[in-house]
Automatic annotation (TrEMBL):
The lineage of its organism: Bacteria, Pseudomonadati, Bacteroidota, Flavobacteriia, Flavobacteriales. It holds the Pfam family MiaE. One of its GO terms (molecular function) is tRNA 2-(methylsulfanyl)-N(6)-isopentenyladenosine(37) hydroxylase activity. This is tRNA-(Ms[2]io[6]A)-hydroxylase. It comes from the Bacteria. It comes from Flavobacterium defluvii.
Length: 193
């Protein structure tokens, strides 16, 4: 369904299991950034009522996920560490087109968002199927479903609001680009790392 070029090696979960506090901290901040991204889309596209309504819903869900991860951190006697840079997301951001109309920029921002959600969904699936911690396996299975919904929402809005962009062609470009950079990741105990 996601069409990603490269699947995450399940051995990545061994790295994650070596430092659960790190993956949880990184994950919490990923959720916060996802909420901020949805709010940014609202800020720059406030005239599109349907989009605003849906992005506010996604922002709320992402903040709930942040809270859920924070609750797990607290329950386990761990500490929410400082925000981490997400080099994967920063590399994706560089691929976003910065020229064209406002509508073109919106569509590429939506595709950027869909790409992040697709990879997060895939990573959560790998975690849910391979992590030994049963509580976290269920948690990541549930979040995988939510991320898949966000992915389809972003992709659907990109298709709906495009003016003169071939969204399917541009999405394939995103898939190819992501496939070229993801080979550098999967070596750290972070969601995208």
């Amino acid at each position: 369904m996601l069409g990603l070029k490269l699947a995450t090696d399940p051995r990545w979960v061994n790295i994650v299991e070596s430092n659960i506090e790190e993956i949880l901290t990184d994950h919490a901040w990923c959720e916060q950034k996802a909420a901020s991204n949805a709010i940014s889309i609202v800020t720059y596209n406030s005239e599109i009522e349907e989009l605003v309504t849906e992005m506010l819903e996604i922002a709320r869900e992402e903040l709930e996920h942040f809270q859920m991860v924070h609750n797990i951190i607290k329950q386990r006697g761990l500490t929410l560490g400082r925000e981490r840079k997400d080099h994967y997301v920063n590399e994706l951001f560089k691929f976003m087109k910065k020229d064209g109309s406002r509508r073109d920029a919106l569509c590429d921002r939506l595709l950027f968002s869909a790409m992040i959600e697709a990879r997060s969904c895939e990573r959560f699936k790998v975690l849910s199927e391979n992590i030994k911690d049963e509580e976290l396996a269920k948690f990541y299975r549930d979040l995988m479903i939510s991320e898949a919904g966000h992915y389809t929402t972003f992709l659907g809005f990109a298709r709906k609001y495009q003016d003169n962009i071939d969204i399917d062609k541009r999405w394939k470009e995103w898939i190819e680009y992501e496939g070229s950079i993801i080979t550098n990741y999967g070596k750290k105990e972070t969601v995208h790392g």
